[in-house]
Design brief:
The structure is a homodimer.
Chain A lengths: L1 E5 L8 H10 L6 E6 L1 H8 L9 E5 L10 H7 L4 H10 L6 E3 L3 H12 L9 E5 L8 E3 L9 H19 L5 E5 L10 H12 L3 E6 L1 H6 L4 E3 L2 H25 L6 H10 L2 H5 L2 E4 L5 E3 L6 H16 L2 H14 L3
Helix pairs in contact in A: 1-12, 3-5, 4-5, 6-7, 6-13, 9-10
């Protein structure tokens, strides 16, 4: 299976990208299409010892910087590395791609190139955000700041297919995130959505509260992307402060790994190399800008695993099944 | 100074309430009006040794249970302990009151009895929610799930007066909580509010993100009560999971207090006995249902400290000053 990797995206590109690609070769089924500035990549690759047949450099005309306005940059730089990656997937050359670069540009490029599932207005992003509740996916995490109730129901279906595929769960539980567990609690959006969720064929457990995310009460937590994005970053921030406090106060080698785990489990994006854009007709995984080689290797394997499990078609079918339950 | 204490409210009432009241007597300026079922309170008080002149039992006709619908219960049980407490403040007998009982009923009773500041539609609640950022107040924490931009600006002014009084800060910084720090980031509410904040005389620092709450970037974080409530409970939940993990993994007496601090610093409400209802013409402090005697004693001292600092008038003036900046 061929996976495209944006060689230019990320805070430590192309070094970490190259090392991540080489690490990913330990999966014998993979070939990497490493996309970026040809000379630079080839020169750096020459420092490493690996199976030359399994990493191919695909030239791009530069890259989109983090500081660039995504939608504009994607249109203007048609041969930038992110665009070349999505092109390789679109043409069927690669089974999916990973970029740790400008995430807005990855969204714009992948969504424009692959197209949205029928009836969706925008893709969404979802992920487990707290490592002590690893089978609790939360979405949307930032793309849809003012969604409608219909959109939230669609996100739920997409989340369900996601956890079925990733965690192998049979009938994932779903809840709406709210300011109280009672069915009459919530802001306007949640109140309007509750009845729709209730009527659907989702395994709907009602409203849950903030602490229920931490304890992993359900598998799919649905919220607007404004709230989700704040939660994601709050957990990273809380984890960081607690980690620093413990590292200062407990200088004891026996407990070093335990304390490190606090950091890892509150920054899953950095740890596991990101998640796929949900709701588009192709596999594009967004990685954390600060990804380590291991995170990049994990991200490449995520792409492969989604492709192996026919992720796109499964997600589409879940959405169709849900919508039929409203007919 | 006389402070009214709801003797019947809280998970461990009246035992913790009585012990908290007695502990609060270590502040020599205080007298406690302990409100509740006379026989029960007097009988339990007889087990303790304290200055009988400084705790007076004020009889009520029962109490409002946690399970009761607040607005209805407050109207129906006119002589329940919470209502008697707000009555004592309204009549000027007590300088303020603390209840750890049904918080909705405390809101309803205090708001109905004291009345709102001019032009406010609803009171709000604000507090520091993360102990590693103790001078960062966030509001609203749950009363206003769909506020307007005007309301958010009012909350900012009320938050500013709060931190001036509590932390003694001269010119507190203020920010809007958003999904990105850029001025064009946010949901509809935040985008519509940004310009109002910008034009005001607030020391406005723009939008901040989730992790900035954890690092204490500003003194007053303004958000809708839906988001605030979820954040508050998420932090409690995250803290609880991390605390349990560390307690299991680090069984070492030397580090016990450090690990306990994680729990304390992520559950400030339980720790410090709650915060005042903001925007009403009288002092009413809401305590956590699970308050310890020490938390209740702290809560009583919070009431006293707010009264000493002329909290109500200071808050009103802050609001008037802010509104004048728009003329």
């Amino acid at each position: 299976m061929k996976i495209a990797l944006d060689g230019m995206g990320g805070d430590f590109a192309p070094k970490n990208n190259i090392e991540g690609a080489i690490d990913a070769l330990s999966n014998p089924t993979l070939e990497i299409l490493l996309v970026g500035i040809q000379e630079e990549l080839e020169q750096q690759l020459s420092n490493y010892d690996f199976d030359k047949q399994r990493i191919t450099v695909i030239p791009s005309e530069g890259a989109i910087a983090d500081s660039e306005q995504p939608a504009i940059a994607v249109k203007r730089k048609v041969n930038a590395s992110i665009n070349v990656c999505s092109g390789l997937v679109k043409k069927g050359v690669a089974s999916g791609f990973l970029s740790c670069g400008n995430s807005g540009a990855t969204f714009a490029s992948a969504t424009g190139m692959f197209g949205l599932f029928e009836g969706l207005r925008k893709p969404c992003v979802g992920a487990a955000i707290f490592g002590f509740a690893p089978e609790t996916l939360i979405l949307d995490l930032g793309l849809n700041v003012d969604p409608t109730p219909d959109q939230l129901v669609d996100f739920a279906a997409l989340g369900v297919s996601q956890v079925k595929i990733i965690y192998g769960l049979e009938d994932p539980t779903v809840a709406l995130l709210s300011n109280g567990s009672e069915s009459n609690k919530g802001n306007r959006l949640v109140k309007e959505s509750f009845e729709l969720f209730h009527k659907s064929n989702l395994n709907f457990k009602g409203n849950i509260e903030g602490h229920d995310i931490a304890s992993g009460k359900v598998n799919v937590v649905v919220c607007d992307g404004f709230t989700g994005n704040i939660l994601l970053k709050l957990i990273e921030g809380i984890g960081n402060e607690i980690f620093n406090y413990l590292r200062c106060e407990i200088k004891d080698q026996r407990y070093e790994q335990i304390i490190q785990n606090i950091s890892n489990k509150t920054n899953l994006m950095r740890e596991f190399g990101g998640g796929p854009i949900i709701g588009i007709n192709g596999i594009a995984v967004i990685g954390h800008g600060a990804s380590s080689p291991k995170a990049i290797s994990n991200g490449i394997n995520s792409v492969a695993s989604l492709a192996n499990k026919d992720y796109i078609n499964q997600s589409k079918n879940e959405l169709i099944k849900l919508r039929e339950s409203f007919l």
